[in-house]
Automatic annotation (TrEMBL):
Any Pfam family the entry gives: ResIII
Residue ranges constituting the Helicase ATP-binding domain according to the UniProt record: 261-431
GO molecular function: ATP binding; DNA binding; helicase activity; hydrolase activity
Highest taxon above the source species: Bacteria
Domain PLD phosphodiesterase: 133-164
Protein name: Superfamily II DNA or RNA helicase
A GO biological process held by the record: phosphorus metabolic process
Domain Helicase C-terminal: 512-679
Keywords: ATP-binding, Helicase, Hydrolase, Nucleotide-binding
Amino acid sequence: MSFTELSLLKHYKTYKNNIVREFYTPVLQEAVLYQRSVGFFSSTALIELSKGLSGIVKNGGKIQFIVSPYLSKEDVEAINKGYEEKKIIEDALLREYKEPENYFQEERLNLLAHLIEKGHLEIKVAFTPPNKSTGMYHEKVGIVEDKDGNKIVFTGSLNETINAFYNNYESIVVFTSWEESKQYAEEMKEDFDLLWNNNDENLEIIEFPDVIKERIKVNRKESVNYNIDEEEKIEEVKLKKGIPHIPDGFELRNYQKEAIDKWAAQDYQGIFDMATGTGKTYTGLGAAARLYEDKGRLAIIIVCPYQHLVEQWVEDIELFNLNPIIGYSASKQKNWKKRLEDDIFDYSIGVIDTLCFVTTNATYSSKFVTEQMSNLGKDTLLLVDEAHNFGSNTLRNKLYPSIDYRLALSATLDRHGDEEGTDCLKMYFGNKCIEYNLKRAIDEGKLTPYYYHPLVVYLDEDEIEDYKDISYKISKECHADKKGKIKITERGKMLLLQRARIVAGAKNKLTELRNIMEDYRDATHILVYCGATRVRDFESDEEENIRDDDGERQIVAVSKILGNELGMKVTHFTSNESAAERELIKRKFAMADPYQAIVAIKCLDEGVNIPSIKTAFILASTTNPKEYIQRRGRVLRLAKDKPYAVIYDFITLVKPLDEANEFSVDYNCERALAKRELARIKEFGEISLNSRDSDELINDIEIAYRITTDDLEEDIDGTEFG
């Protein structure tokens, strides 16, 4: 085949082209002469240069390389002082020679050894004599000629180093003699020949040192594998950066494979309902790898709630051989917008066959990303972590119908009190492909077993009065729709939040915590889960309506008890700490040096993994099953020297159970709170190691407030008011 029949680009860039595969290999397979001035020499460069050379050898061709030594400041000074130039250059070249690290490098050095021995490959060294100039020879030009005399000349920023080929942002420009560049190609050929024959008065050319030839010959074998290009090409396709595949030596578990199979059978749409610690992320990435294998091209868009979750995903994404664009406000990839824009354009016109973009919910819903997503359609996978968030009014309109392939990851997809949002998610993502709950995860050793201790505390008189007052106001904000379903106004939802904060910040919780923590003064790996609430001082409040910012923050009050009163070493874990600070806290906490306890709020709900937690005190919980299931999951991660975990759950009731009176005007109000707390006790207690210990409390609450199983199966959205 003639060069004129090749499909060549005018410009190759390393960030979007595999220059070796797309340019060097096809050109050299048709060449009879390859001349290259390559800049600085290294053995890895020689290995890369050997790609495609089997073709030119079969053609009986010749290869001529001019390399330049990388001279240190000391080398230049030695040459200027008159020391032997050849010895200094020889030593400089030897410094850049590294032994082969794998089978392919060994075979390629074997090929080079045979080429040098048979005279197919000649290498010369160019350098600037001290009496000519103070500069260095650093030209980067290549000339290739075929059997018909057609010439290809290429030049640009690309050095023949493995770093330049694959890591740097480099490029080459291509000129051909059969088009408008004939004169330029001929001139470059003449310049190279002039240099090769040592006729350039500004440069000195010496033969390639014998000592390095001998180093190369050490790798010579009896025979040459001329199919090494094809063998490595197969391996490259498998391991090419950006092509998703299961990591070598790693195998998905059977339940993960089954989930992926079912997802594929559902036209690559579905939900992975998987408890924390069961390999949800790996299953999702395994699904992406399967889809790429099935379709041959794929744009992968991964969305998760927070920045720290994006970074956790990045580690696993890279493990699956993807090279993600990381998009959010503080991304370490400062040019992520440009990369995303370029890759989506290249993908849409078929220049590349895969891309991966991982981002936060907020960035995904931004104007810029929205505009970019409009350029994607088929062959796009939308993979959403903690997908329940996408049922919100803000995010659900970002569930684009033009995207064919969809995957939702969530341990709790149902949105508490938001039937419309839940239905929207199920309609978009489809049916569940797997349901792997906490009990199964514990039974199968994916999570640690645990002991559960519910601790009952009561509202004080001021808190009861305020709780009842807000409940009355909530009742005025609730109305039945045409179907008889209770709906609540936006003001009512704000009042629900205020009432929940009264329960979360009950002062008696601090008293109970202080008492029980006496036994944990010297313990380590403790988590105290607070609410984003305050412990109110009602006596000092003279206003008619209590504000949300009244009183001391619960997290501060707890820290004072543990740190000041009990002398424990504690730290906060909140949204106020940076990602770097959180990572440092996690490491120090795992070693119990210096921190015994972490006092945290909501930022632990989704995705933050601190496996070393052994004992948890949950002061502020929620009636939302999604949230309290997540909080429990944080505590049950497997860790060394952690045969089980212990959970203390602070249960809030209006008054002692023996004082409950069904004829009281406040009975329904008290019952509503008891009902919500009972649902959590049952959920936590049922699969605990000491499940019988909570049975008595469950029975007492059910009797006192006449709560049945049917009552608990109703949708508890907090609108009950009594």
